[in-house]
Amino acid sequence: MNRRFTGKNYLCCRMNNIKMKTNKHILKLLLFSSAFLVIVNSCRKSDDGPDYDYFISKELAVTYTTTSINNMLNSGVQAYPELEDMKQFIESDVNVYKMVYRTEVFGEEIEASGLVCVPVTPGEYPVVSFQNGTNTFNAYAPSEYVVNPSYQLIEYIASMGFIVVIPDYPGFGRSKQIPHPYLIAEPTIRSVVDMLYALDESCELEYTGITTRNEYYLLGYSQGGWATLAIHKALELDYNDDFDLRGSVCGAGPYDIYKLLQGLTDTTYYPVPYYLGYIINAYSHYDQFTNAVSDILNEPYASRLSTLYTGSLTGGQINSQLSTSIPELFKADFISGFASSPAYSSVRESLISNSVAAWNSDKPILFVHGEDDADVNVTATHSMYDAMISAGTSSDMCTKVTFPGLDHGDATLPCMIKGLMFIINLRDQ
């Protein structure tokens, strides 16, 4: 049957055709616009720089010239003659940058920070990661106090042909809003490894003329000595495909945290209680302990503890709010039941799991310690060294040096100078 088109039908049909053509035209314009925006956005993203997985930003903090470095070393030679031996390796000015990068603390992504020290002279350089000792005061974190004399010698290492990274650790610098996971292995290792990843992925583009060589060294003292050994083990066993670890220097670290606390239950006095409070505060916050703080500490210390580790007090100030008397600080039940009571099983298990267990290492390790250390007894180093040898590590691969007559603070610089020369010798072999 033929369909007849009246004027009205024809007009409707004509208008429908126009609408279809218009819709097709609009669709083409939308598709073209979308494609154009994708191209423009892609170009804009490329112009803004690469999309890093770890690296976020950097900021130049200070520059040291070879003259200023030599002058600083000269000023300390009389007290520490070993500094004279270091001067022969100084060959470049140094730029020190604050770097912000991504890491995680128990599955929560955070922005962390630290220092990256690079030679001004272009080239390919091995990397030294320095793990600092116990700190409670955010203003003393590496990226917050760049010219802190405690870190300057480490920053100078870059002048000797290295790239040097100094992590703040979670809880300091950019991540000061969270409690520091003091002596907790997983977030400590993760934060340092992620900083190495951030450096590696960004170095060539962010630090003009500077590239990383796949050659890594670790150096640390006190808490940093413990962290260095834990990171050494992780790099050797878990991250060996990404990082070629060449050797580490571990100074005066509480490698066996369980034995450290166990030993204190047999004493009545400890001169630095803020170390102990730091452990309890961190382990409680991050659910390492299932016991309440009030199960471990006497009052008023139990109620006071969480107010002390906010990044606003120094270790000395926290010491004045605690007690050097072990029976006064700790609950009597905790002291008597620490080693065997089921009530404190989570305490024992978590301290053991965050200690560094010995293993058969084929990467060079130097342990250094002051023999009169009252903060971390030198037996911590002797025991760790013996355990490494018993686990199969060669005595040629694992060595130790102790310094007679030096306590925890006084041994810091001699230990670090000895460690630096050890690393330079490994590099130059």
Question: What can be said about this structure in brief?
Answer:
42% of the residues lie in helices and 18% in strands. It is of the alpha/beta class and 429 residues long.
List the helices and strands and how they pair.
Layout: H1 7-48, E1 55-64, H2 66-76, H3 83-86, E2 94-105, E3 108-119, E4 123-131, H4 149-156, E5 163-167, H5 185-206, E6 210-221, H6 223-237, E7 245-251, H7 257-264, H8 273-285, H9 301-304, H10 315-319, H11 326-329, H12 332-337, H13 345-353, E8 365-370, H14 379-390, E9 398-403, H15 412-428
Can you describe what's shown?
The protein has 429 residues and is of the alpha/beta class. The protein folds into 3 domains: 1-49; 55-256 and 355-428, Alpha/Beta hydrolase fold, catalytic domain (Rossmann fold, 3-Layer(aba) Sandwich), CATH 3.40.50.1820; 257-353, 434 Repressor (Amino-terminal Domain) (Orthogonal Bundle). Helices cover 42% and strands 18% of the residues. Strands 1-2-3-5-4-6-7-8-9 form a 9-stranded mixed β-sheet, sandwiched between helices. The protein is globular. Residues 1-47 have low confidence and may be disordered.
Q: Tell me the Rg in angstroms.
A: 29 Å
Give the helix level as a range of percent: 40-55%
CATH H-tier superfamily of the largest domain: Alpha/Beta hydrolase fold, catalytic domain
Beta percentage is 15-25%
Spans with pLDDT under 50 lasting ≥5 residues? 1-47
Largest sheet features: 9 strands, mixed
Shape: globular
User: What top-tier CATH class of the largest domain fits best?
Assistant: Alpha Beta
Per CATH, the architecture of the largest domain is 3-Layer(aba) Sandwich
Number of H- or I-type helical stretches: 15
Domain count: 3
Order of helices and strands: HEHHEEEHEHEHEHHHHHHHEHEH
Number of strands: 9
Mean pLDDT level? 90
Distance between the termini: 99 Å
Structural class: alpha/beta
Strand order of the largest sheet: 1-2-3-5-4-6-7-8-9
